[in-house]
Amino acid sequence: MREFCPGYVRAPYRALVADYPDESVFTVDDFRVEWGPVFHRGRLDRTARILVVGQDPAQHEAVVRRILVGTAGRRLQGFLARLGIDRSYVMINSFAYSVLGQGGGSRNVDDPAITAYRNRWLDTIVKDQPIEAVLSLGQLADQSVKLWQAQTARGKAFSGVVTTMRHPTYPESAAASGSATHATAMAKMLTTWNAALDQLSGHVTPDSPIPLAHYGTDLAPSDLAVIPERDLPPGLPVWMRSDKTWADRQGANANEKRATIVIRIPTSERPF
Ligand code: URA
Fold first, then answer.
1. SS3 of residue 247 by DSSP
2. For the chain, which domains are there?
């Protein structure tokens, strides 16, 4: 039997996705609102013990309609595996819509309406599920969690571990901006991931207990874990879970690029 994500069928989540903010809140200048919101990945059935907060959905997420399914998600999946967690997690992003351009994230992270919707998700998950720890990925996600802890009764009362580590695509963004080489940024990222492993192991009940093993200075191929079938909508093609890039924004100018996601089955993944 195949497993799949049943979606937002239970009451607290059904209400959250039935009532999401539109472009009057997530403005068309700062967000790719035209691709719609993407809400979560993982358990919504009262079994999640760790809540991960990411940043915003990219092109793979826009197609799959679940978050953290590309490179960042596979790296994170490998991190969770080191904690012995292979199913008891839930993830949301700081922003339900994809952020457009530089500065859009920091400009909007504490916007009152955006924060209110994010806080509703965080409150709902922490009320509904046995969450033992909250892990944020990168500075904006860290800020989102801190706002929740400062602003809501449930955030203030949450007594589990709250920790943060560098965003899983920090090496690529640091190398692209020229602030560090890819190798240096990777080593820096993994130092923070090892610190997060130390904080979380022993506090988050594993699905399958394994001895704690720290990262070295680079990711090994095995650190790019496969996104489980049970996290994704039914019938999703297998190649959409591959580690090859299969969706790309293309276009001759900014608006064409914004309007176009090209989907291509990687050659190594073709059954023909
Ligand atoms: N995709 C997401 O959904 N979130 C991130 O933070 C990065 C990629």
1. strand
2. 11-269 (3.40.470)
Q: What is the pLDDT of residues 39-92, one digit of tens each?
A: 999 999 999 999 999 999 999 999 999 999 999 999 999 999 999 999 999 999
pTM of the predicted protein model: 0.97
How many whole angstroms from 128 Cα to the centroid of ligand 1?
23
**Residues whose CB falls within 8 Å of the CB of residue 65, separated by 6 or more in sequence, listed in order:** 38, 233
What does the alpha-carbon distance between residue 105 and residue 123 come to, in Å, rounded to a whole number? 22
Ligand 1 touching residue 135 (CB < 6 A): no
The percentage of residues in the chain with a pLDDT greater than 70, rounded to a whole number, is 100
Q: Contact 43/89 with Cβ under 8 angstroms?
A: yes
The residue among 243, 247, 245 whose CA lies nearest residue 263 is: 247
In terms of pLDDT, which residue wins out, 101 or 46? 46
Phi first, then psi, for residue 148 (nearest 5°) are -60, -45
Q: Please give the share of the chain, as a percent, with pLDDT higher than 90.
A: 97
| 3-class SS letters over 11-35 | HHHHHHHHCCCCCCCCCCCCECHHH
Which among 42, 71, 89, 23 is positioned nearest to 170, based on CA atoms? 71
Question: Does the CB atom of residue 72 touch ligand 1 within 6 A?
Answer: yes
d(CA 95, CA 143): 12
Q: Where are the strands (E) in 104-183, listed by range?
A: 133-137, 161-165
Pick the atom of ligand 1 nearest to 54's CA. Answer: 6
